[in-house]
Amino acid sequence: ALISARPYRPVSYNNRTALEVVTSMAEKGEVGWRAVRSLIAHNRRSKPGHGEIIPSLVKRGTSPPGNLYGKISDSN
């Protein structure tokens, strides 16, 4: 969903940044690490098994311009 256009995000995430968002979610316990490793493996050219993947915790990507995903508005 992060790499698809959405009404609240006029520009989609690139693959790297989307995987970093999902990795951050795993760090918080919101998704499982196996799912993260499977997504990363699927996006690698060599298509390694998910068990071979060690996700990087370094965040290099940036959210797309105008992104509102994960933002909470102040209702005051």
Topology:
Blueprint: H1 15-27, H2 33-43
Helix pairs in contact: 1-2
Structure commentary:
- The protein has 76 residues and is mostly helical.
- It has a domain of 38 residues.
- It has 2 helices and no strands.
- Helix 1 packs antiparallel against helix 2.
- 9% of the residues are buried.
Task: Give a summary of the structure in a few sentences.
The protein is built from two helices and no strands. The chain is mainly alpha-helical and 76 residues long.
Q: Could you name the key traits of this structure?
A:
76 residues; mainly alpha
User: What is the oligomeric state here?
Assistant: single chain
Beta-strand content estimate:
under 5%
Radius of gyration: 14 Å
Shape: globular
Could you give a short account of the major beta sheet?
none
The portion of residues assigned to helices is 25-40%
How many beta-strand segments? Answer: 0
Can you count the helices? Answer: 2
